[in-house]
Amino acid sequence: MNTALVHSDAYERFDYGREHPLRMERLGLTWRLMEAYGLTKLPSATVHAHEPATERAMAVYHATEYLDVLKSANTGVAPPHAERYGLGPGDNPVFPGLWDAARLCAGGSLLAAELVASGKAARAFHFAGGLHHALPARASGFCYVNDAVLAILSLKSRGLRVLYVDIDAHHGDGVQHAFYGDPGVMTISTHERGDCLFPGTGFVEETGAGDGVGYSVNLPLEPYTDSAVYLPAFERVVPPLIGAFRPDVVVAQLGIDSHRTDPLTHLALDVQGFARAVRRIAELSPKLVCLGGGGYDLQNVARAWTAAWAVLNGVELAAELPAAFGEDARRFEFEAKTLWDPPEPLPEPRRLRAQEYAQRQVDAIRRTIFPIHRL
Description:
The chain is α/β, with parallel strands linked by helices. The chain is 36% helix and 11% strand. It is built from 11 helices and 8 strands. It is globular, with a radius of gyration of 19 Å.
């Protein structure tokens, strides 16, 4: 099986700001851990440096006036009325090179989609992508351009049937918004419940509109849901729907802010649970485009996305981090010396709450969504 890894060193030029939780360093760190494990030189894998997307390619989804504002913000100075478009202090700062960074992210995900659609790769991974909150004319949740939507639209333009599955801790609201009335794209998002975490959406009742009813699927989860609760819930919802929808290609957003030590969220997955979810997605997907997403503890990001790339290539990795990664491990003060996390069972009351809540959501999905798909 041929695979493709899409990566660019150009991301190192961009910085959201010293106090912002999204650190571009996570991308280079991930690349170097993959490199230390020998994953960047696999015989059946190719590595692709990508070009920025053209404005025309982004205008397939994003409003022209919004793209004009992003271009104006490239200097690092907020243009007039930037706040109308979600730009400003806080989540979506204006920084030097903002437009260039948005174009680069979109270009990587479009290339990953093209490699899979053309048959050059059965699976592709652009781990700098997955910025799933951006709306047609508004930045949101650290996301300026919705590269996931652009990748899906590119695949659709080739006549492919696309299923999107999002395992980020945050609801994939921007992607759901784009296809909420479209039965040609199924979106599935597993995430921390919206009354506990940004963006405040993603409830099980959000099932689509018009002809798209039943094609937007949300599995919200209780804070502190761990792998032992998450994986059975995932298994009861995602595989049956993939089987019923029968996509030509799956686009997967692999955010790792669902990890138990992520500073912005409250889920409690470990790296091995995350990797098992990725493995199931890969097993179920005829073709697969993987994108990155959230993740604000750099150690978790590097370990999880390295594990994901290994899964996509059927490679078993040694648990101990490679000696070649030692300098980075010291520089970034890695607490974990292995790829995998030690066991850390939840206290029984929390586990029971998480389990009961997940069961109610799964039952609701199976009661409301499954009959639409004859399940």
